[in-house]
Amino acid sequence: MKNSFLAAIFAGFAIAFCALAEEAPNGFRAGPNMAAQEANLKDGFKLSDKAKEVIGVKTKSLGSKPFSIPNTALVYYGDKVGVYRLRNGWFKLIEIQKNNKVSGTSSISSSDLSESDQVAIEGVALLRVSEMDVFGGEE
Questions:
Q1: pLDDT of 42-82, one tens digit each?
Q2: For the whole model, what pTM was predicted?
Q3: What are the angstrom distances between the C-alpha of 10 and each of 44, 46, 80, 113, 127?
Q4: Pairing of strands 118-122, 80-87
């Protein structure tokens, strides 16, 4: 229920910001006074602290391999599955391979993840909405 309420609030803010937002020269919807402050295809997108708070983003360090994450961190898009990696303040959707699933957690692997990375474990649905707004839809 809380997530639905937050999603509705975020959607309202997103619609309001969309009406007022200008695209950056690179065509992405990001800027210093917006929820997404920076964006590029290589690194992903940076969110303001307030946006992370409203979305309810929580992260977890990956630690050593094999990586084990809560199933709440998984993002299903198209026929793929991924996680939102947080590296140096940048969120980026990383396609992963699920190796096995055990009681609320999954063992994952990806050549784009390292032991020093963090992954979003809460707020991932709204991170996806944010990413689609920043980059203009499906990637």
A1: 999 999 999 999 999 999 999 999 899 999 999 999 999 99
A2: 0.80
A3: 20, 17, 25, 28, 11
A4: antiparallel
Q: How many residues does the chain have?
A: 139
129 neighbors 69 (Cβ within 8 angstroms): no
DSSP state, residue 123:
S
Q: Identify residue 5 by its one-letter amino acid code.
A: F
For 35, list phi and psi in degrees, rounded to 5: -60, -50
Strand duo 75-77 + 58-61: pairing? unpaired
If we measure between CA atoms, which residue out of 51, 48, 57 comes closest to residue 10? 51
User: Nearest Cα to 46, choosing from 10, 14, 90, 94?
Assistant: 90
Burial level of 119, CB count in 10 A (0-12/13-18/19+)? buried
Strands 67-70, 75-77: pairing is: unpaired
Dig out the tokens for 104 from the structure.
Answer: 């609320």
